[in-house]
Write a structure and sequence with these properties.
Layout: E1 12-16, E2 22-26, H1 31-37, E3 48-51, E4 54-56, E5 66-71, H2 78-97, E6 102-103, E7 108-109, E8 112-118, H3 125-141, E9 146-151, H4 152-161, H5 165-174, E10 178-184, E11 187-190, E12 204-214, E13 223-232, H6 235-250, H7 253-259, E14 263-264, E15 275-276, H8 278-297, E16 301-302, E17 308-310, H9 311-317, H10 319-322, E18 328-331, E19 337-340, H11 345-352, E20 364-373, E21 389-399, H12 404-421, E22 426-433, H13 446-462, E23 467-471, E24 480-486, E25 492-500, H14 504-507, E26 512-513, E27 519-520, E28 523-532, H15 533-544, E29 557-561, H16 567-579, E30 584-586, H17 593-602, E31 607-611, H18 613-618, E32 620-625, E33 629-635, H19 636-648
Parallel strand pairs: 1-5, 16-20, 22-23, 29-30, 29-31
Antiparallel strand pairs: 1-2, 3-4, 3-5, 6-8, 7-8, 8-13, 9-10, 10-11, 12-13, 14-15, 17-19, 18-19, 20-21, 21-28, 22-24, 24-25, 25-28, 26-27, 31-32, 32-33
Helix pairs in contact: 2-3, 4-5, 7-15, 12-13
The structure holds one RNA strand of 75 nucleotides.
RNA sequence: GCCAGAGUAGCUCAGUGGCAGAGCAGCUGAUUCGUAAUCAGCAGGUCGCGAGUUCGACCCUCGCCUCUGGCUCCA
């Protein structure tokens, strides 16, 4: 019988280097030592190593044979390490400046890092500056960051002595028999790592804001103070990120919504309820008309359902039990309870069920711009992105089992066709399927789920779409595909969703009569393209930065007379534009052209038509396009043709 | 809901325990002008709402409303 291999009996191991060399190294040698010995290129710049696919410290000894490579600051997975280490430096700075502070946790997150602290006073902006300053000093000190591994009990004693109750909690809850902690200049943090080898390797960082955060994210727990920051490999990347934040701020739909007079939210009326001004309403109508045309072309039918209904409807659907906290209810004079609809699905099922359906009637693609009201907690409301009253471009497809692939395919085709028209090119598809280990929590039979999941996959494959698959992420009533769309400044937004629903057909016991005369249950697919019109409108404002394409622009053209001497001609041009169906207006102010142009540019009007005596003599306009400038003289009819086609074809460019 | 910050003219924002301020927008007048701001004058306010402290509160205290950023993405 052979002994299990141990470092003593097996003092060396084979390691494959990035250049393909296979070398034998002594047990206990660290990644950095191996890199030095075998003269790996740029080893001085490396911040960590990757061993058998896992990121490890440069000082970590290799536990077994395998593949070793170095991680450089510019590598994609370096960012997480840089940010995590920067968060430790921030915690050290806070402990140095405010020794009574207790540290909780400080991970790297999507675009930066945070650290949660407990202390009596909140952090002020001045504190933040001071902390950042101290962090730079710690970087300057270039402290060694070292990993230590100790028995769990030792770690517990250590954090107990340091009076760090949150760290103690993590050691107790999360540590195996061996706990790892990191130490730099006397600052210790229970942490998995990996980290950069010394604080001097950090530098391009900035603290961004403070926030309250519940301990472990639970409202039952005390609130800690969180500091958010971000870090990058280089100052240039940090600057670029900060500039991107600035760009996003300039495009903020709340700001542009006010500047362009698109919508408002009124304090007296209540929060989360949107008032659409004339300009915003034009854009909204155009967005809706466009999709309505696309749906009509694809065989959808339109319905309209009531905003309120007896509680009974939502008891049958199950919403009354599962969705109650979000529902508004009303009580009538004769003590009847009515519910303000939070979803359109039950209404559509009502219409489906209003008659006997034959297999020949299917599929039925039933669409509605359905306005729903949902109570959302005040703290979650945000501009148009999260509101309490909103309109869904909702549709439900009722179909036979043999039609599901075709229907899903149709939904995916529609998604791309619609968003490409707005200039979105980058889509991310996410497939959520059930957790096979937890079958009892789902509505619907195995057979139904298998067919539905297969249909989603088949449709995705047929359209050659790449997608992420999420096991166990499906909601209880059916599998789904969510679609994220990336906007002009690279931000992904979850918009469309295509979901099977095995719950409602059963609850309402809807059916169709099949070829064989049997009553059978149809498949029901819930799908939305824009999702919420309000939210999508907000996204569009930010996507275009307020510069709507001609077909969406509230005012498409503004006539700018050079002086009152040509006001008669200006009015005649305006009249012809309006007769041609264009949304146009005339600047009748006594301003000079320069001012008129400036005002039109600020109002983001796509076409500016400067008219003076020269144009009046030649039945022309001098065309200026926003953000582009003077385009020269154009005959009025030619301009009208151009503007009409840009509108009719829904072109992105004026 | 909870934490922090904020709320002053239509908009963007100064300001102080003792008469409320600017720029832009608006109105009036002059200017009639060629591709991102013509000049002058006038008007504009329950300083988010409600209490309290004070001789006196926009300012200090408390409550409420609204907005903004957040509220477990490996210890």
């Amino acid at each position: 019988m052979s002994e299990p291999r141990s470092p003593i009996t097996d003092p060396s191991r084979e390691v494959t280097l990035p250049d393909g060399r296979v070398v034998s190294v002594a047990a206990g040698m660290s990644a950095l030592e191996i890199a030095k010995q075998h003269e790996l290129p740029r080893r001085g710049r490396a911040i960590a190593a990757r061993f058998n696919g896992r990121a490890i410290d440069l000082h970590a000894a290799l536990p077994e044979a395998g593949h070793l490579s170095l991680i450089y600051p510019e590598d994609p997975d370096a960012l997480e390490i840089l940010r995590h280490s920067t968060s430790h430096v921030m915690a050290q700075a806070v402990k140095e400046l405010f020794p009574d502070t207790k540290i909780a946790q400080g991970p790297a997150i999507e675009d930066g890092f945070y650290y949660d602290f407990r202390r009596d006073e909140p952090f002020t902006d001045e504190d933040l500056e001071q902390i950042e300053q101290r962090m730079r000093e710690i970087v300057e000190r270039n402290l060694q960051i070292r990993r230590h591994e100790v028995a769990k009990a030792v770690a517990e004693r250590m954090f107990e002595q340091e009076q760090e109750p949150y760290k103690l909690y993590f050691v107790r809850e999360k540590s195996g028999p061996v706990a790892s902690y990191y130490e730099q200049g006397g600052f210790r943090d229970f942490c998995r790592g990996p980290h950069v080898p010394s604080t001097g390797r950090l530098g391009a960082f900035k603290l961004l804001r403070t926030a309250g955060a519940y301990w472990l994210g639970s409202e039952q727990n005390e609130m800690l103070w969180r500091i958010y920051g971000t870090a990058f490999a280089t100052e240039q990347e940090l600057d670029a990120y900060l500039q991107q934040l600035e760009e996003a701020r300039k495009r903020d739909h709340r700001r542009l919504g006010k500047e362009l007079d698109l919508f408002s939210v009124q304090e007296v009326a209540g929060s989360g309820l949107v008032f659409w001004h004339p300009n915003g309403t034009i854009v909204r109508h155009e967005i809706e008309s466009f999709l309505r045309e696309e749906l009509t072309r694809r065989g959808y039918v339109f319905v309209t359902t009531p905003h309120i209904a007896r509680d009974q409807l939502f008891r049958v659907s199950g919403h009354y039990d599962y969705y109650r906290e979000n529902m508004y209810t009303l009580r009538t004079a004769d003590d009847e309870e009515l519910v303000l609809k939070p979803m359109n699905c039950p209404g559509h099922v009502m219409i489906y069920d209003a008659g006997l359906r034959s297999y020949r009637d299917l599929p039925i693609r039933m669409a509605e711009y359905g306005t729903v009201y949902r109570y959302e907690r005040s703290g979650t409301l945000a501009g148009l992105f999260r509101v309490r009253g909103f309109t869904q471009d909702d549709a439900h497809i009722f179909c036979r089992p043999d039609q599901i692939v075709e229907e899903i395919d149709g939904c995916l085709e529609l998604v791309e066709a619609v968003f490409r028209r707005f200039g979105f090119e980058d889509f991310r598809f996410e497939l959520s399927v059930r957790d096979p280990g937890n079958a009892e929590k789902y509505a619907g039979t195995d057979e139904e789920w298998n067919a539905a999941e297969a249909a989603l996959v088949t449709a995705l494959d047929r359209r050659h779409l790449t997608y992420q698959r999420y096991e166990g992420e499906a909601v209880f009533y059916g599998p789904k595909i969510d679609v994220k769309v990336v906007d002009a400044i690279g931000r992904p937004w979850q918009l469309s969703t295509v979901q099977f629903d095995f719950n409602l057909p059963r609850r309402f016991d809807i059916a169709f009569v099949d070829q064989d005369g049997q009553r059978k249950q149809p498949y029901m697919v819930h799908r939305a393209i824009y999702g919420s019109i309000e939210r999508f409108f907000g996204i569009l404002i930010e996507h275009f930065g307020g510069y709507f394409p001609v077909w969406l622009a509230p005012v498409q053209a503004r006539v700018l007379p050079v002086s009152e001497k040509v006001s008669e001609y200006a009015e005649s041009v305006l009249c012809r534009l309006q007769q041609a169906g264009l949304r146009a207006e005339c600047d009748r102010s006594p301003d000079k052209v320069g001012a008129k142009i400036r005002n039109a540019e600020l109002a983001k009007v796509p076409y500016m038509l400067v008219v003076g005596p020269r144009e009046a003599d030649s039945d022309a306009v001098s065309l200026r396009i926003h953000q582009q400038g003077d385009q020269g003289s154009v005959a009025v009819d030619a301009f009208i043709e151009r503007a009409r086609s840009a509108t009719a074809e829904r072109r992105l460019q004026p």
